[in-house]
Amino acid sequence: MKVPFLDLSAHHQPMREQLDAAIRDVIDSNAFASGPFVAAFEREFAQYCGSDFAVGVGSGTDALWLSLLALGVGPGDEVITVPSTFMATAEAISCCAARPKFVDIDERTYTLDPNLLEAAITPKTKAIIPVHLFGQCADMDPILEIAARRGIPVVEDACQAHGALYKGRKAGAMGVAGCFSFYPGKNLGALGEAGAVVTGDQGLAEKIRILRDHGQHRKYYHSKIGWNARMDGIQGAVLSVKLKHLDVGNVKRHSHALLYDQLLGETLEIITPFEAPYGRHVYHVYAVRVQNRNQVLQAMSDKGIGCAIHYPIPVHLQDAYRFLGCEKGCFPVAETCAEEFLSLPMFPELTHAQIHAVADELKLCISSRRPVSKCLK
Ligand SMILES: *Cc1c(COP(=O)(O)O)cnc(C)c1O
User: Fold this and answer.
1) Whose CA is closest to atom 6 on ligand 1?
2) Quick check: pTM over 0.90?
3) How close is the Cα of 88 to the center of ligand 1, in Å?
């Protein structure tokens, strides 16, 4: 059985008429750049996250960058984050002319290890960005406690964690700002590029609103040098439709993950994801860890099963960040995980038959490799 990694057509099919109607409304009202559809989505999304304000922007990358700019991060500053993330987290720091300072991840949750945080803080540290990788929140209480004691703002990279919970609180609503991506493949995805910052701080929301619109507080009156990072109207309208389906999608992802856990959990060669008791994982990505990952990926793909790697190279080892001088061995947990992570198909519309097929093939691929690993031992 062929199983795609992601099936957006299956996801959109049941809501297709609502999506078409939403797009038609935007065309009929010519509200293409920001405007009332974006404003409506901002209210709905802030409420969904249990926060006061949401500011729609062009992408998750914009959300991170403008949050840091609005917090005053600039040249010579350091911002702490993890190497196990998508490049955008570090890029946003660099685009403020600040320097990313990496902290390794916890081996079970794959998120910022709070035990390593304090040692990474210097007088130059201007923000901390925990990343809720794969849809599970970082262990926020100790992170927030250390940050508060040092007077450093925490910006959550919640780009993979729409609707995830931490001790009853929603991802994105715990730090001074929470950054979301609505890239089409995310748990809440637009039909194009979009992002948002969620915050309880009205002043910060206002700064980000000004920065996303060329620094204008009033049309053609520019109090700051900003950028064009507005959310477009069609994405706002589409996201209002899709937000209503987010919780149902997350519940399905969670139950698919439990089935994968059940089918794969007893195979010693496979490390299944750990859902920390402090919260609720929304499984944007269902990543297992295996040895000889690249061969397993190839074997799965030969069988028609779409797998992926998030991410093959940790950010500190990317060519673009060679200048930071972090070598192999600096962040051992992130590096080991990057070699072993294998993301299996995960989307709400997966069927049980597909999940069984993926699990069966994965176990076959692993067991056919067993003699080799025995030789190595
Ligand atoms: C997707 C993603 C981003 C960037 O979002 P875009 O909308 O693609 O700009 C940032 N951080 C993480 C962890 C992501 O997964």
Assistant:
1) 60
2) yes
3) 6
